[in-house]
Amino acid sequence: MKTTVGELASHVRSKNAGPFWITIDLFFPDTDTYRRASTSPIADTATIAARYSIDPAGIRIFLLPDLAAIKISFPRPTHQGSIHDRDMHAGQQYVPLLDVEIPSGVNKQQH
Prior knowledge:
Alpha-Beta Plaits
């Protein structure tokens, strides 16, 4: 059975991590759900790179089991406040991850 990040996560947010980085936080309701997500495509740099059309080498994924959370950080496509910045606070940058499918019983991905 597959569900999406948007269905599994209890809270998802994105924000600036300084003027040059974006960070996305995915919080899960319990340890089992966190483990399921942390071993899925959402914890794989290739998935994130494809969703944002960015170089996977610049992506940082932090697995936080004590918080049942996953933190994803990557360089902003344009620095905050520039003439081409369409989301000054990066508050909407989590949206491309909501429909990433999280299969049940997946094996650990490389990241």
